[in-house]
Amino acid sequence: MTHEALSPDLEAVIARATTAAPHLATTTANQRARALVAIADALETASPDLVHIALRETGLTQARLTGEVTRTAVQLRLFADTIVDGGYLDARIDPADPDFALGQRPDIRRTHIPLGPVINFSASNFPFAFSVMGGDSAAILAAGCPLIVKAHSSHPDLSDATAEVATRALTQAGMPEGTFQLIHGREAGVQVLQDPRIKAGSFTGSIRVGRILADIAANRPAPIPFFGELGSVNPVFITADAITERADEIATGYLASVAGSAGQLCTKPGFAFIPAGSALPQAITHNATDVPEHRLLDPRIAKSYDERRTAVLGTAGANPLIPGGIRFDDDGQGWATPTIIAISLDDFRTGRDTLLEESFGPLSILVETPTGTDLAALMPEFYEGNLSGTLHISEAEATGETDNAPQLRALIAALANQVGRVLFNGWSTGVAVTPAQQHGGPWPATTNDSSTSVGTAAITRFQRPVAYQNAPQALLPEALQDTNPLGIPQHISPAGQSHHWGTRWH
Q1: pLDDT (tens digit per residue) in 148-165
Q2: Do 405 and 263 share a structural domain?
Q3: Long-range contacts for 474-480 (Cβ within 8 Å, ≥24 apart)?
Q4: Is 229 a catalytic residue?
Q5: Can you tell me the distance from the alpha carbon of 409 to that of 419, in angstroms, rounded to the nearest whole number?
Q6: Is the pLDDT of residue 3 over 80?
Q7: In terms of residue numbers, what domain contains 100?
Q8: How many CB atoms lie within 10 A of CB 96?
């Protein structure tokens, strides 16, 4: 791979990150935790000023943006506690065993170390939670890796302001120079990703751009891990009994989930499969309110949404249950209201090539399925990977004892094979920041279906395992020492166990 020489400024950025890497890797978990909490505190203190900038650059509401700052701070604090706990290091200890079943076993101990400098391409639709100090950035810093963030072009002033807040906090916390840096420009981001000193990349955005960046990372002379969160349509399946039980509740929840943040969420329910002839379409139109038009993030996104909406509405059999619309102002900004479309399963099958592409905006499609449709079979027929899949079921169906229980279990299994998160009686727009959260899924939801960009497991993406064999105690990483000075979880396989492996199954 050949690429242009770096500018002096970009060379200095990568050089600082490279110099910082070994120093940051030797910081203690307590030191990094204090730094993460310092960033969280500083962001919340600066929230009014940052939100003011974000209002101007993104068009998102003040309530949404203020909540996003809080979410960002909470995740930083969660990661601080996680790295001090140390379970993410997955420390494993196999003491020497002269009576091992396969011959003498040496002392082997395994843990994880930071990868080194990482570049994170920030997102447009979450200017705090998936941007300069969002989830990927928090995970990279928690893992002990120097971070270079490529700012998103839709909110450059906010990116600069957030970077200033974070840089001051990290400096005051005593982190090495070069721990965190911000760059602008697509070309600069690509050049950093190509540089051999960069050890991993992360990205949140479109399938097209994500695939380009993933290919760059994979085609380097020394390929590197690339963690991209790309596209998702997040199918929903709603049973007849659930509709009979609470049609209005489902309708209002669905409408709110589609319209929230003008549908510019990777977890928006793009399709809902419902029984043909059910009362849900009527409940949706009955509960639809006059949602004020919402500005989309930028003119490029608005133009793309307008094209997708036109294509979907032009599909044979598409019935605009709620027509919605989009208008453009003199600055090229698009202002949208929600569009809900109903279509039969047969017409959906015929128009699948047009309909299945993600509509990044406030549009969703109700697919009316005939009685007896094998819903589990619809997953591989229509979808690749998704971030989430949702089931709305009745109270009786939740017991697992109804006549359709086998079909529901088959549908759940099919969903689990193709999504990262299976929800029941809720809506996918609302990704809780918790240790057990999984925000990922098979391609094209992400470029790596075994990883997550939300939750504490996100940290391990930016570390790699190392085993130490017959190492003296004094020279072992503290995480692997017998005295366990860090007080972290250690998985120990005592000598003598190997002769008993498998005996319980005789």
Answers
A1: 999 999 999 999 999 999
A2: yes
A3: 476/109, 477/111, 477/113, 479/86, 479/89, 479/91, 479/111, 480/91, 480/93, 480/109, 480/110, 480/111
A4: yes
A5: 15
A6: no
A7: 8-230+451-463
A8: 13
- C-alpha Rg value of the chain to the nearest Å: 25
Contact 389, 382 (CB under 8 A): no
Q: Are 276 and 370 in contact (CB under 8 A)?
A: yes
Q: How far is CA 292 from CA 19, 283, 295, in A?
A: 51, 20, 10
Catalytic residue among 229, 358, 368, 397: 229
- Alpha helices (H) in 99-238, listed in sequence order: 135-143, 156-172, 186-194, 207-218
Pick the catalytic residue: 68, 266, 368, 397?
266
Pairing of strands 325-328, 200-204: unpaired
The reported pTM is 0.95
Residues 23 and 64 in one domain: yes
Give the tokens for residue 173.
């916390």
Any residues with CB less than 8 A from the CB of 495 and at least 6 apart, and which? 95, 96, 97, 98, 99, 100, 105
Query: What is the rounded (10 degree) CA torsion for 368, 374, 380, 383?
Result: 20
Express each pLDDT in 226-267 by its tens digit. 999 999 999 999 999 999 999 999 999 999 999 999 999 999
CATH classification at residue 315: 3.40.309.10
Assess if residue 474 is contained within a domain: no
Does residue 168 sit in the same domain as residue 62? yes
pLDDT of 278: 97
Dihedral angle computed from the Cα positions of residues 259, 260, 265 and 267, in that order, rounded to the nearest 10 degrees: -80
- Across the strands, what pairs with 490? 91
Structural tokens at position 440 = 């990922």
